[in-house]
């Protein structure tokens, strides 16, 4: 008993050491990459980070739902699209800026998400898990087609001064507004981490996510927690919908590509690893923009996105097998 | 259940399916072709699902088969009839090679990797302009197979569907069934009871991919062209998936019912509500899945069996 | 067992009711079968404009003493659905002539069925010559097909012609270097191919280009392509994408302080309210029609007025006047031929001289492969004070060009 326990402890320490070492290595590589890019291709760093911010800010709420409610929400991007249209309508009618509508948009979409959860997803949670996939697929079609009926497929865009805000450093002029997505992504990741580890509700949600039956035994209302987490995630997506409107034109299909992108990022980070989504996004954003900056590799930039996703998932799974 | 009656009924349906061109016009035949193509894809997706592996790569393999067939004809002068088995073999080969690596993954990691591979195939085809025709696609100069004869094209797709159904029954009735079900239910105990998990998964993946590739070949031969955004369309992944799930998974008849339902409803709605039929389509998927969580195939089970199925 | 029978019976009845019964059949009408992608604004407004033309023609007494009837089926932009739409219109509704079309992918699905029936097709879309024109094949087997929309190479040639003419007339406009930012799909790629050939062949221009993923297809990041363009320092910057790209790309260009002498977009339609944006000032565009043509063309003015009266919305894409023209051309052809039989109707349509709302007289001439190509010229326009003014061709011009494109302040 004694020696084996000690060996176990040693093992844990060795693993911890290994993890620390790995973290240090990753950190060093990141710094080195950043320095090289600043000197050699500053635009890759700038635009890569901006792209990463947008990817991550949309993907993090999906990571939350996947990690705790355990459903792949194929209507994830459509919720963002709905929030964008709602914000657009309100902004046009009242003449307000979408940034002012940010918080109300988040609250309204959160409420809407909660209602959708109660009416549909909640009922499908007891059914075979694949049903949730197809249910949310149906929601995605219904949402985007209803918007198509009301607004047609024509695109809408708010014209805002600050969207083309610019900064000059030497000869280099670049847009800075998109950095707002980086800020949001970081706020989402840090905020959610604090929520899940520091607050009572958050801890309960984490417990439900890890072991719903156990959580039910200790008196946590599992379905209520699922509903809250889903509504929270949809609220975060809703805020992104309002923010997205400052950068992009909107049309009925604008959300759906984000669903698959987010799903890929969450898978790349590993389920339940919300900060990992940030890392995955930065990796993909930089890699994509790096290839785009050369004439010869320009057309292949998109492929690296998918190759990296596969490579990361495979290497993690193989490592998991070894240990 | 009277087994002979069922058999007679099945034979009648089969005869009716083969003889349909004798009494149906070109429009129902065209609709039947569309439905049968998706039906066969749905069956092939379900076959792999029986092992617990959820593939999002149907469109990728369908597209590979489509391009293998049309490039075989256009670039290598292959006869059109040969291009369809060639598409199947080519997709099987690709599946065999990638299967070695990706079949070690489980759950959503497998799903996302199959999806990513499909995208990679699409981008490769998209970027090899001189060989594949690039984003604009490639056209068969000699036109479609059988000179566009509606009956023959219908039988071609029917043949593809029968291959899928036969393979599915083979999966259901042979040892493969026990192996795949064991893997799905409990991989560890399956392993300990001597099931060579990897070998069975690879077999299932290669066979289903071959079917999907063959269907891609049939598609391009009956329309005479291929373009990346057409043959790699996400529809070829999502619709078969929806059909199988609505019909009821882990069976052959589930996807069949699901495909008939969704296919007919989609066409019918399109004619009745030209503007906005897709809204109704989406809402219908939601309602069916909420009120028939086991899928349509359950409607056909006798009441006693259904109760049993519900408690399970 | 009984259940199974019941379900089967219901399905069969359902199928029967859906496919045996056609639409309401009016006796003694001339039927036009319209196929568009109805969920898309081009198809929605194209089909609406075609119906408007049918109503106008019927109000004026119809054709050969009969009323026209337009039956519209959605192709959902998909090849297989498009093929089913042709079959339904041909065999169930028994239409006399087909109109419609937009995306090349859906058009390719229709062509085998079109060929089978050989009825006259008045096509409003599909610019991809590498696929659609090739699939149609040469005369006489493709003679039934009347292609109104210009092919990609027609468009390229007309722009080359247009810029030559503009530089001659306005010596202050000098173009040496052209950069094309093209969306990576079939539309953008064919624009790039045509541009390379038609502008790059005689060495008068230096051409460069780079692709981007359109926001419409899940992209929307223009930083890399604009960086490449900025480094090239073009006199004429062209982007070939979709309406979703219009404003975000301008905003990005401004943020990067990229201001070419001419900034030109070539999307099939523009976003709502584009003209009211400050950034839109003096942006140039390629197109076929704009409401500004109303001032110089009475057919356009009539179309515009009636369209708004009927649908209470502005025609937002040129597919509306194009589909409207398609119906008028078919109606006049049938009048001249005295029948809807393919042979005489094709002969009659070959004599078409239709004064269209697009500001030109439409006739049919051979193109590279097919025999019946309608419009070959596009227009060069400019956003001035929120209106798309025609700059070239000069005979339909509504304004003088403003040059250069304002440098960002």
What does this structure look like?
The complex is a heterotrimer of chains A (323), B (312) and C (409). Chain A has 323 residues and is mainly alpha-helical. Chain A is built from twelve helices and two strands; from the N terminus they run αααααββααααααα. The longest helix of chain A has 39 residues. Chain B has 15 helices and two strands. Chain B has a domain of 210 residues: Orthogonal Bundle (ABC transporter involved in vitamin B12 uptake, BtuC). Helix content of chain B is 77%, strand content 1%. In chain C, the strands form three sheets. Chain C has a seven-stranded mixed β-sheet, sandwiched between helices. Chain C is built from twelve helices and 14 strands. Chain C has 409 residues and is α/β, with parallel strands linked by helices. In chain C, helix 2 crosses helix 10, helix 3 packs parallel to helix 4 and helix 6 crosses helix 7. The longest helix of chain C is centred in the N-terminal third of the chain and has 19 residues. Chains B and C meet through helix 2, strand 1, helix 10 and helix 13 of B and helix 1, strand 2, helix 3, helix 4 and helix 5 of C. Chain C: It comes from uncultured spirochete. Chain C: This is Leucine-, isoleucine-, valine-, threonine-, and alanine-binding protein. Chain C: Belongs to the leucine-binding protein family. Chain C: Keywords: Signal.
Name its key features.
heterotrimer; B: 312 residues; mainly alpha; ABC transporter involved in vitamin B12 uptake, BtuC; two-stranded antiparallel ribbon; 15 helices; 2 strands; disordered C terminus; C: 409 residues; alpha/beta; Rossmann fold; 2 domains; seven-stranded mixed β-sheet; five-stranded parallel β-sheet; 14 strands; 17% strand; LivM-like (chain B)
Brief characterization of the structure:
The complex is a heterotrimer of chains A (323), B (312) and C (409). Chain A has 323 residues and is mainly alpha-helical. Helix content of chain A is 76%, strand content 2%.
């Amino acid at each position: 008993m004694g020696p084996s326990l000690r060996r176990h402890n040693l093992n844990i320490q060795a693993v911890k050491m290994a993890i620390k070492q790995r973290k240090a290595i990753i950190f060093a590589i990141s710094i080195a990459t950043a320095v090289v890019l600043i000197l050699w291709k500053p635009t890759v760093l700038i635009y890569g980070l901006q792209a990463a911010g947008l990817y991550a800010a949309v993907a993090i709420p999906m990571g939350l739902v996947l990690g705790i409610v355990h459903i792949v929400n194929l209507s994830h991007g459509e919720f963002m699209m709905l929030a964008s249209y709602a914000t657009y309508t309100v902004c046009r009618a009242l003449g307000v800026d979408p940034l002012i509508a940010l918080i109300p948009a988040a609250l309204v979409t959160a409420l809407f998400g909660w209602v959708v959860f109660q009416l549909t997803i909640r009922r499908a949670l007891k059914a075979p898990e694949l049903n949730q996939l197809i249910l949310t697929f149906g929601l995605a079609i219904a949402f985007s087609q209803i918007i198509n009926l009301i607004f047609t497929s024509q695109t809408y865009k708010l014209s805002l001064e600050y969207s083309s805000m610019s900064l000059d450093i030497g000869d280099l002029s670049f847009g800075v507004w998109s950095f707002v997505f980086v800020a949001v992504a970081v706020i989402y990741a840090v905020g959610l981490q604090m929520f899940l580890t520091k607050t009572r509700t958050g801890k309960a949600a984490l417990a439900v996510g890890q072991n719903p039956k156990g959580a039910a035994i200790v008196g946590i209302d599992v379905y209520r927690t699922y509903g809250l987490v889903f509504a929270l995630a949809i609220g975060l997506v809703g805020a992104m919908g309002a923010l997205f409107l400052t950068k992009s034109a909107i049309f009925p299909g604008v959300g759906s590509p984000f669903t698959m992108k987010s799903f890929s990022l969450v898978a790349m980070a590993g389920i339940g690893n919300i900060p990992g989504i940030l890392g995955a996004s930065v990796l993909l954003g930089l890699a994509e923009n790096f290839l785009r900056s050369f004439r010869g590799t320009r057309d292949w930039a998109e492929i690296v996105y998918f190759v990296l996703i596969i490579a990361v998932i495979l290497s993690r799974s193989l490592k998991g097998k070894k240990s | 259940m009277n087994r002979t009656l069922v058999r007679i009924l099945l034979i009648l349906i089969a005869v009716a399916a083969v003889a349909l061109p004798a009494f149906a016009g070109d429009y129902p035949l065209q609709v039947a072709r569309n439905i049968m193509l998706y039906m066969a894809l749905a069956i092939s997706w379900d076959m792999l699902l029986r092992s617990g592996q959820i593939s999002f790569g149907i469109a990728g393999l369908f597209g590979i088969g489509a391009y293998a067939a049309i490039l075989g004809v256009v670039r290598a002068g292959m006869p059109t009839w040969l291009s369809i088995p060639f598409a199947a073999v080519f997709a099987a080969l690709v599946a065999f090679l990638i299967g070695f690596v990706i079949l070690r993954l489980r759950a959503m990691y497998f799903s996302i990797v199959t999806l990513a591979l499909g995208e990679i195939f699409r981008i490769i085809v998209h970027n090899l302009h001189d060989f594949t025709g690039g984003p604009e696609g490639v056209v068969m100069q000699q036109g479609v197979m059988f000179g566009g004869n509606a009956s023959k094209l219908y039988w071609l797709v029917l043949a593809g569907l029968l291959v899928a159904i036969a393979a599915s029954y083979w999966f259901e009735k042979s040892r493969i069934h026990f192996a795949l079900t064991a893997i799905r239910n409990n991989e560890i105990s399956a392993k300990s009871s001597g099931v060579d998990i990897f070998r069975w998964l690879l077999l299932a993946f290669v066979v289903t991919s071959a079917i999907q590739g063959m269907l891609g070949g049939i598609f391009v031969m009956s329309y005479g062209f291929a373009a990346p955004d057409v043959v790699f369309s996400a529809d070829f992944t999502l619709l078969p998936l929806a059909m199988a799930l609505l019909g009821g998974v882990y069976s052959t008849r589930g996807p069949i019912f699901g495909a008939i339902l969704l296919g007919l409803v989609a066409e019918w709605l399109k004619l009745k509500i030209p503007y906005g039929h897709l809204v109704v389509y989406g809402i219908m998927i939601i309602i069916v899945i909420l009120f028939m969580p086991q899928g349509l195939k359950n409607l056909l089970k006798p009441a006693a069996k259904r109760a049993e199925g519900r408690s399970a | 067992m009984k259940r199974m029978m019941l379900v089967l019976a219901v399905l069969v009845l359902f199928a029967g009711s859906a496919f045996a019964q056609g639409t309401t059949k009016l006796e003694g009408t001339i039927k036009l079968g319209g196929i568009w992608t109805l969920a898309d604004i081009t198809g929605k407004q194209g089909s609406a404009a075609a119906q408007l033309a049918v109503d106008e023609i019927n109000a004026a007494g119809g054709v050969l003493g009969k009323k026209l009837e337009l039956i519209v089926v959605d192709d959902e932009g998909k090849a297989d659905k498009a093929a089913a739409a042709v079959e339904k219109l041909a065999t169930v509704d028994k239409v006399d002539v087909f109109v419609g079309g937009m995306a090349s992918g859906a058009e390719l699905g229709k062509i085998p069925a079109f060929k089978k029936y050989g009825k006259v097709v008045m096509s409003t879309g599909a610019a991809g010559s590498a696929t659609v024109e090739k699939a149609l094949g040469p005369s006489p087997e493709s003679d039934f097909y009347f292609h109104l929309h210009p092919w990609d190479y027609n468009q390229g040639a007309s722009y080359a012609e247009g810029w030559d003419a503009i530089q001659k007339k306005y010596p202050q406009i000098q173009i040496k270097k052209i950069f094309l930012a093209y969306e990576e799909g079939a539309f953008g790629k064919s624009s790039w191919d045509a541009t390379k050939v038609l502008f790059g062949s005689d060495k008068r221009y230096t051409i460069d280009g780079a692709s981007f993923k359109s926001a419409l297809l899940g992209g929307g990041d223009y930083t890399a392509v604009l960086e490449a363009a900025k480094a090239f320092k073009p006199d004429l910057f062209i982007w070939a994408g979709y309406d979703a790209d219009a404003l975000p790309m301008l905003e990005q260009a401004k943020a990067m302080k990229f201001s070419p002498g001419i900034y030109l977009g070539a999307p099939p339609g523009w976003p709502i309210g584009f003209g009211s944006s400050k950034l839109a000032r003096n942006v140039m565009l390629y197109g076929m029609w704009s409401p500004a043509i109303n001032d110089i063309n009475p057919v356009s003015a009539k179309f515009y007025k009636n369209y708004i009266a009927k649908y209470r919305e502005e025609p937002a894409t040129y597919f509306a006047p194009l589909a409207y023209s398609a119906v008028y051309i078919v109606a006049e052809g049938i009048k001249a031929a005295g029948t809807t039989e393919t042979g005489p109707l094709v002969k009659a349509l070959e004599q078409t001289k239709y004064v269209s709302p697009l500001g030109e007289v439409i006739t049919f001439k051979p193109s590279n492969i097919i025999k019946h190509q309608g419009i070959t010229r596009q227009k060069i326009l400019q956003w001035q004070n929120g209106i798309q003014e025609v700059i070239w061709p000069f005979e339909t011009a509504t304004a003088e060009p403003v040059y250069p494109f304002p440098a960002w302040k």
